């Protein structure tokens, strides 16, 4: 495969196959939402869109980064998501990096969202397809977030079929600025952060599904693949 690793701002042409990475925490949260029974996840383009969707679909579950806010039912935290019952529910997610990256690449013929918890299944899907070129969108830190880059490189290596130990990649993510920031926020008791968030983001291949995004009418919708 001819892989490229780019930041959101570098997605200037529509990639054929794109894998959008947000380890801490957007696409760890979406994986947990599916594990907790969610049917689909709408990736909103703005907070206003998320609130409007909630207004027209009161039964949908909305979540965002940061502390609790009017119009949103949950926060973007895997630690809090793991105790939610989302059986059959539609979740609307808007985050600072992950959902923005998806909208930047939404013209791709195959658009996957990934984090460490679904890395193995994502790599397996890519390997089965056999595409010549995959664009990995590193959403954090203007394309330089170590946790997202490490995850992207782990998936890319797994997709070649080579035996790959996740320990090195997880170690890089654990030492990242994002991990340190979340851990500090948890120690300080900041709303919107759970004490288990970092640990849950650093579990490789926990879930047996990949996550594919596609347009469904005016919406960008994520489903297990």
Descriptors for this entry?
putative 2-phosphosulfolactate phosphatase; 21% strand; ten-stranded mixed β-sheet; 225 residues; alpha/beta; 10 strands; single chain
Describe this structure in words.
The protein is α/β, with parallel strands linked by helices. It has one domain (2-224): putative 2-phosphosulfolactate phosphatase (Alpha-Beta Complex). Helices cover 36% and strands 21% of the residues. It is built from 9 helices and 10 strands. It has a 10-stranded mixed sheet with strand order 1-8-2-7-9-10-3-6-4-5, sandwiched between helices. β9 (211-216) and β10 form a beta hairpin. The longest helix has 14 residues, at 146-159. The chain starts with a strand and ends with a strand. The mean pLDDT is 97.
Write the layout of secondary structure elements.
Blueprint: E1 2-6, E2 17-21, H1 26-35, E3 40-43, H2 47-56, E4 61-64, E5 74-75, H3 78-81, E6 90-94, H4 98-104, E7 110-114, H5 119-129, E8 133-138, H6 146-159, H7 167-174, H8 177-187, H9 197-201, E9 211-216, E10 219-224
Parallel strand pairs: 1-8, 2-7, 2-8, 3-6, 4-5, 4-6
Antiparallel strand pairs: 3-10, 7-9, 9-10
């Amino acid at each position: 495969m001819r892989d490229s690793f780019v930041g959101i701002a570098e997605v200037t042409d529509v990639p054929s196959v794109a894998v959008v990475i947000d380890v801490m925490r957007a696409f760890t949260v979406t994986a947990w939402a599916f594990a907790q029974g969610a049917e689909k996840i709408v990736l909103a383009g703005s907070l206003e869109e998320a609130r409007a969707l909630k207004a027209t679909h009161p039964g949908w579950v909305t979540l965002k980064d940061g502390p609790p806010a009017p119009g949103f039912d949950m926060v973007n935290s895997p630690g809090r998501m793991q105790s939610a019952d989302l059986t059959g529910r539609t979740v609307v997610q808007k985050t600072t990096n992950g959902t923005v990256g998806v909208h930047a690449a939404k013209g791709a013929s195959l658009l996957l969202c990934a984090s460490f918890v679904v890395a193995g299944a994502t790599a397996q899907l890519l390997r089965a397809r056999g595409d010549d070129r995959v664009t990995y969108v590193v959403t954090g830190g203007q394309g330089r977030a170590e946790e997202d880059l490490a995850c992207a490189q782990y998936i890319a290596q797994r997709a070649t079929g080579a035996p790959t130990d996740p320990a090195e990649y997880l170690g890089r993510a654990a030492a990242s600025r994002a991990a340190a920031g979340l851990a500090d926020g948890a120690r300080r008791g900041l709303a919107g952060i759970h004490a288990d968030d970092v640990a849950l983001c650093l579990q490789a291949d926990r879930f047996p599904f990949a996550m594919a995004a596609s347009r469904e009418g005016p919406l960008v919708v994520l489903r297990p693949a």
